[in-house]
Amino acid sequence: MYFMALATDYDGTLAEYGTVRPETLEALKRLKETGRKLLLVTGRELPDLKRVFSHLDLFDKVIVENGALLYSPDTEEEKPIAPAPPPEFVERLRQKGVDNISVGRSIVATWEPHQAAALEAINELGLELEIIFNKGAVMVLPTGVNKATGLKAALKEMQLSFLNVVAVGDAENDHALLRMCGCGAAVANALPALKDTADFALEGERGEGVEELIAEIIERDYAFCANQRHQVPVGEDKNGPVEIGPPDVLLIAGSSGIGKSTLATALSERLRERRFQFCVFDPEGDYEDLEGTVTVGNSSTTPTDSQVLEILANPDDNVVVSALGFELKERPSFFAKLMPGLSALRARTGRPHWLIIDEAHHLMPAPRDSASLALSDDISGTIMITVHPDAVSPKALAAVTAVVALGPKAREVIETFCGAVGEAPPAGIDQLHEDDEVLFWRRATGAPVQRIRAEKPKQARKRHTRKYAEGHLGEDASFYFRGPENKMNLRAHNLIIFLQIAEGIDDETWEHHLRAGDYSKWFGERIGDPELAQEAAGFEEDRSLSPAESRQRLSDAVRRRYTAPASGKD
Fold it and tell me: Residue ranges under compositional bias (Basic and acidic residues) (predicted)?
């Protein structure tokens, strides 16, 4: 379930001449029964609203006075969001002959044509007030107060994101409300200008239009309003942007050091720009400096599910969950422990909107059944990143709707994925010809594979020293000291272990790998550090260096870039 709440205007939308149809009330009840929330957002004052509408208890929150006052029907608590109107302003209006005035907790309301007198009074007194119109009504409120700001205060209390809210209205004062929410609808009797603001206009007028909207939400959820604000660009081809949306499960796959984390970083930026909330599972420390996030856990401290959920309780906060402190074999159990809480949060609030799961073959390995991984039946809004698609949980792979394959073996990546899910590879898989190209395949539509230019991050990605210095690189990314004729098999799964083994091995083994260029090759292809690789290549080519000297220089280069305190090296 993606749309978690309906925010509706009252007069001219929910009600006709102040009265709500019984059929409309029944529709509201049906929506509540799905687990969704109801919010009433109106320009009326609360005593007046209670007088004309006796069903406020249907609503979780009521925003009155055009956003200035928040009312909770279950507790009858009233919470002003804006200051009281200046008494001198009300008095000045009366002096100008405006006698049809209603004064609320924050609002001062009258009718046209008294807007001219209201504007004169505001200017004469030098007040920070603004005039808002509502089909003949003239409402004066503190500057910046409107239905959108009132709804924002209500959603904060409810821990909901505006992206998961559908709004419906009919008049001038509903523009901000519809623009703010994830989907905006206008009833058939709405002003033409509001219909232009809305994502679509309903066929029914007033309550009948709301009933129509509720039926669409219940039956189709996100599908009835798949507008552009929910789309996330992955890249672009010759025809324009290539995008994914909330129903998608994206697989990003390719060999090590080929740019998977770089693309994931770019996608996190696009998510932030659209105000999506996201949670990153980070087994290797690739995202510890990701902008706009809070990181829990590090190489020496393991995160807890309560820490993660506490951060995600605020819709404006994003979290990176570092699993560096866990042994490789412990990571699936940690992931499984956290998933039920995340799934419950998503079921209740629709958040976090996106899960980014790096090293998915570690967290969701194929040998583990879906029950032991605590995978939800619906994992939409997920981005999985892996070197080995066929090593990921079959249930997770079956849910994939789109694939991004990177690197010189991109075609093989898609073929491996298809083999893992038991289907024939798509048509038109070509090898990549440009360094900044990736393959994109929209699996669900049966479309051919596209060559696209992937999104690039705006933030400078830092070299994540913990992953390479202290982490646990996989077997395919580790360095193996084998020596001449493969007499030994010493594995270095991070740079610290590499340096420790390098100090202890014999000169013959050291120089065997040095002269073969194995060190620079590992730094470049597996560590993904071309600058270190270039420096190492210089030592490998310098025949004047003794084994002790080349060891020391290579060790100094690695320590300077990865283990020196507060180096900040990119």
Answer: 540-559
Distance CA 426, CA 439 (A): 12
Task: Enter the tokens of residue 191.
Answer: 């002003």
Residues contacting residue 103 through CB under 8 Å, at least 6 positions apart: 85, 90, 109
Residue type at position 306: S
Phi/psi zone of residue 254: left (φ > 0), alpha (ψ -120 to 50 degrees), beta?
Answer: left
Rg of the chain over CA atoms, in angstroms? Answer: 30
**pLDDT per position as a tens digit, 20-49:** 999 999 999 999 999 999 999 999 999 999
Q: How far is CA 175 from the centre of its chain?
A: 25
506-545: per-residue pLDDT in tens?
A: 999 999 999 999 999 999 888 878 889 999 999 999 999 9
Count the neighbouring beta carbons within 10 Å of the beta carbon of residue 114.
21
- Residue (of 156, 184, 162) closest to 4 by Cα position: 162
Position 326 in a domain: yes
3-state SS of 229-273?
A: HHCEEEEEECCEEEEECCCCEEEEECCCCCCHHHHHHHHHHHHHH
pLDDT for position 104: 86
Instruction: Please state, in angstroms and rounded to a whole number, the distance separating the CA atoms of residues 441 and 237.
Output: 12
Distance between CA 529 and CA 532 in Å, rounded?
6
CATH number, position 45: 3.40.50.1000
Residue 432: its pLDDT value, please?
Answer: 67
Q: Could you give the CA distance from residue 363 to residue 365 in angstroms, rounded to a whole number?
A: 6
Contacts 24+ apart (CB under 8 A), 94-102: 96/120, 96/121, 102/45
| Count of structural domains, the chain | 4
Looking at the domain assignment, is residue 438 inside a domain?
yes
Q: Are residues 312 and 166 in the same domain?
A: no
**Cα distance between residue 460 and residue 16, in whole Å:** 55
Judge whether 238 lies within some domain. Answer: no
Confidence of residue 121 (pLDDT cuts 50, 70, 90): confident
pLDDT of amino acid 567 = 38
* Distance in angstroms (rounded) separating the CA atoms of residues 91 and 108: 11
> Are 428 and 290 in a shared domain?
yes
**What's the token pair of residue 328?**
């490789």
Question: What is the spatial distance between Cα 32 and Cα 16, in angstroms, rounded to a whole number?
Answer: 22
3-state secondary structure string across 26-50 = HHHHHHHHCCCEEEEECCCCHHHHH
For the segment 260-296, what is each residue's pLDDT rounded down to a tens digit?
A: 888 999 999 999 999 999 999 998 878 888 889 999 9
Predicted confidence at residue 464, as pLDDT, reads 55
Co-location of 100 and 24 in the same domain: no
Q: Report the C-alpha gap between 541 and 226 in whole angstroms.
A: 58
> CA–CA distance from 492 to each of 102, 207, 213 (Å)?
77, 68, 60
Q: What is the pTM of this model?
A: 0.80
Same domain assignment for residues 411 and 485: no
pLDDT tens per residue, range 486-509:
888 999 988 989 999 999 999 999
Residues 322 and 188 in one domain: no
Inside any domain, residue 569: no
| Amino acid 566: pLDDT | 41
